[in-house]
Automatic annotation (TrEMBL):
InterPro entries: Alkaline_phosphatase_core_sf, Sulfatase
Example of a GO MF term: arylsulfatase activity
Phylogenetic lineage: Bacteria, Pseudomonadati, Verrucomicrobiota, Verrucomicrobiia, Verrucomicrobiales
Family: Belongs to the sulfatase family.
Species for this entry: Rubritalea profundi
Protein name, UniProt field: N-sulphoglucosamine sulphohydrolase C-terminal domain-containing protein
Superkingdom of origin: Bacteria
Gene3D superfamilies: 3.30.1120.10
Amino acid sequence: MRKKTIYWQWSAGGAIRVGKMKAVFWGKNPQWELYDISKDNNESNNLAQSKPEMLESMKKNWQDWRASTTP
């Protein structure tokens, strides 16, 4: 399992991976999705509804990272 958090930003999307969890969004009005990629590497079982606190924490971390990398 990864020890460091990984962040992505591309076109109209972005993602964050913390341990086995990955949060991802795409589009101008993004709907974030959450996956346990240790059990769901195809990202087909969105856990956003069942783990809202985890998703919110990951979203905030991604937004903080993005703000720190934007001039």
